[in-house]
């Protein structure tokens, strides 16, 4: 399967660098580029990419708003692109809002080329990228300051989960993969996949990224939590 990628960044040199990396992979094709969020929305509509690499800070329509618009528009159509947000981290304090807007994950802009390629493959396959170290640092740093960190309905939503499913949600929020969760709980990876699917279905979530955000929003995991 060929993965169609749209590059969105206001810096042409960065777009060129990403293009060179991605076009070296036989199963990835860069179908277009955009320098701002408005152009990204137009290109997404016209080119139907599988994955959109989205910068956060851009002139005019930023990456967060563009992600929100693209995901909302895609919800009414047959083609749903996956948005992978790129951030410099130290500068972008709105990355969690991008995840809430519908992004399927995020990476740092200095990510090694092989990790960027793998992330695109994972996202294109329908999963989400939640890097444990980045997720933890990001949500610990900004989670307490987000204006919508708690939703009244959240505790009721969590009551739908069994104790085992709550435990799996906590481990997802730590950024653990299915294999790592299986090792932690001493169960098969197939069993973990079933639990993860149940968690997403019962909570009405699209993917693991949304599960991480919800875990913080509900207080299941709190900023500053130390993991052993």
Q: How many strands, which pairing sense, and closed or not: the largest β-sheet? A: 5 strands, parallel
C-alpha Rg (nearest Å): 17 Å
Cα distance spanning the termini: 39 Å
**In CATH's first tier, which class of the largest domain applies?**
Alpha Beta
Count structural domains.
2
What is the name of the CATH architecture of the largest domain? 3-Layer(aba) Sandwich
What percent of residues are in strands? 5-15%
How do the strands line up in the largest sheet? 2-1-3-4-5
Structural class: alpha/beta
Give the total of beta strands.
5
CATH-assigned fold name of the largest domain: Rossmann fold
Q: How would you name the CATH homologous superfamily of the largest domain?
A: Response regulator
Order of helices and strands: EHEHEHEHEHHHHHHH
Mean pLDDT: 83
Which word captures the global form? Answer: globular
Uncertain spans: 146-153
Helix count, per DSSP?
11
């Amino acid at each position: 399967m060929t993965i169609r990628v749209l590059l969105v960044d206001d810096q042409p040199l960065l777009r060129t660098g990403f293009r060179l990396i991605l076009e070296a992979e036989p199963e990835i094709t860069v179908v277009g580029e955009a320098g701002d969020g408005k152009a990204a929305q137009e290109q997404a509509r016209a080119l139907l990419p599988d994955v959109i690499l989205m910068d956060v800070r851009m002139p005019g329509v930023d990456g967060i708003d563009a992600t929100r618009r693209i995901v909302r528009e895609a919800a009414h159509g047959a083609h749903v692109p996956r948005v992978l947000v790129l951030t410099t981290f130290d500068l972008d304090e709105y990355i969690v809002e991008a995840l809430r807007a519908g992004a399927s994950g995020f990476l740092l802009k200095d990510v090694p080329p092989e990790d960027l390629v793998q992330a695109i493959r994972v996202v294109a396959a329908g999963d989400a990228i939640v890097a444990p170290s980045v997720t933890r640092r990001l949500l610990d740093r900004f989670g307490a300051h987000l204006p919508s960190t708690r939703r009244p309905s959240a505790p009721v939503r969590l009551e739908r989960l069994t104790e085992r499913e709550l435990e799996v949600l906590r481990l997802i929020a730590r950024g653990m993969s299915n294999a790592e969760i299986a090792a932690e709980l001493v169960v098969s990876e197939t069993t973990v996949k079933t639990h993860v699917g149940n968690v997403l279905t019962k909570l009405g979530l699209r993917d693991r990224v949304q599960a991480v955000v919800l875990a913080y929003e509900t207080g299941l995991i709190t900023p500053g939590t130390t993991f052993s």
